[in-house]
Design brief:
The strands form four sheets. Strands 3, 5, 6, 7, 9, 10, 17, 18, 21 and 24 form a ten-stranded antiparallel sheet that branches. Strands 4, 8, 11, 12, 15, 16, 19, 20, 22 and 23 form a ten-stranded antiparallel sheet that branches. The chain starts with a strand and ends with a strand. The protein is built from one helix and 24 strands. The chain has one domain. Helix content is 2%, strand content 45%. The chain is mostly beta strands.
Length: 352
């Protein structure tokens, strides 16, 4: 069981920011080569995905641990996504999407670059895996925000806004506010905890990152409205604990989607048995996955993943994907490349 309490004026933590307060204390349980271009013949390729099973429809918390032991070559990405929904809302508003992604590179930059283009801009550090926290606004709803809650958090994870893959016309549906870890996490244990907080009503404010408008402009102002705040705690071995607040619109962000709301997917994992493959061993371990239901003080462990997606060009994934392993005496889900035999689509992987 984990617990954390926040109270008072979050807006005055660190440098001067927009003032806001919470009526009562909230207590809860708890280069030169950024991403290399894909080969024209097969696009991004190498996408396989698994969803966490047995997630309750009133889930308001997620916690897990990860570690990268081998960085791989090229621009490998592991997307670890939390998708949210508000029940009984008419269709058309989509889902909230909080990404806690592992890239096998990082970029160095100052905080809040506004629109930084795609891929994200900065000094490249290839071969040094890092954690990218992102609030992604699929559909261009506009009501998303991301704010570090301490100066240490801001230094470790400065922000920038980027479009996604240079597609989408006026870019209204492509806002991705990213906070990119400044440094390599190779061989370091990272624990991430997300817990939804009570609904907040906000006026129009700054310091929540930039976002695209429907006209294709970029604005630093978070629209007024009601938001579900999701508090993220990132504990990285050898670093101060970092805290962030993700804001998701009231129509999208109340609960974790029970079917597919927690997922792991790969990109740029090309088959190693074909010419010009992007080789180099990659290995990421994911374990100690827990969820929290609304009104419940107990974190519940999850051990089952449904391997339900394989979009590999030229056949099923070979030489990369998911498998269950023993790592340092515990059972873990491995996302790997070039390290042996992996599971196949349709398998249920268990990490008891």
């Amino acid at each position: 069981m984990r617990s954390l309490a926040l109270s008072g004026d979050w807006g005055t933590i660190g440098s001067v920011r927009t003032f806001w307060s919470i009526v009562a204390s909230i207590v809860f349980l708890a280069g030169a080569a950024p991403v290399p271009p894909a080969r024209a013949a097969d696009g991004p390729g190498g996408t396989v995905g698994a969803n966490l099973l047995d997630v309750a429809p009133d889930t308001v918390g997620l916690s897990f641990r990860l570690r990268v032991d081998a960085p791989g070559l090229g621009g490998k990405i592991v997307f670890i996504a939390l998708r949210t929904v508000t029940p009984d809302v008419p269709g058309g508003v989509g889902f909230g999407t909080i990404d806690m992604d592992v890239f096998n590179h990082w970029v160095g930059y100052e905080d809040d670059l506004g629109h930084a283009g795609w891929p994200e801009q900065g000094d490249p550090h290839p071969g040094e895996p890092s954690l990218w926290l992102r609030n992604v606004d699929y559909g261009g709803w506009g009501h998303v925000g991301l704010q570090p809650l301490s100066e240490a958090s801001r230094r470790l994870f400065p922000r920038q806004c980027a479009g996604i893959d240079r597609v989408g016309g006026a870019r209204a549906d492509l806002t991705s506010i990213a906070a990119i870890h400044q440094g390599s996490i190779l061989g370091r244990e990272v624990r991430i905890t997300l817990v939804r907080q009570p609904l907040l009503k906000r006026g129009a404010e700054r310091d929540w990152g930039h976002r695209f408008t429907w006209e294709g402009d970029v604005t630093p102002t978070l629209p007024a409205g009601e938001y579900w705040p999701w508090l993220a705690t990132v504990e990285t071995e050898g670093e101060p604990t970092a805290y962030f607040l993700f804001l998701l619109d009231e129509l999208r962000g109340q609960y974790v989607v029970p079917d597919g709301g927690v997922s792991v997917r790969t990109e740029f994992f090309f088959r190693p048995d074909v010419p010009e493959s992007r080789d180099g061993a990659f290995q990421l371990f994911l374990w100690d996955v827990q969820t929290l239901r609304e009104g419940d003080g107990r974190w519940r462990s999850h051990t089952r993943w449904d391997y339900g997606e394989d979009q590999t060009v030229g056949g099923l994934a070979t030489g990369y994907g998911f498998r269950t392993v023993r790592d340092r005496g515990r059972s873990a889900l491995e996302v790997g490349y070039g390290l042996g035999d992996y599971a196949r689509i349709g398998d249920v992987l268990e990490t008891p």
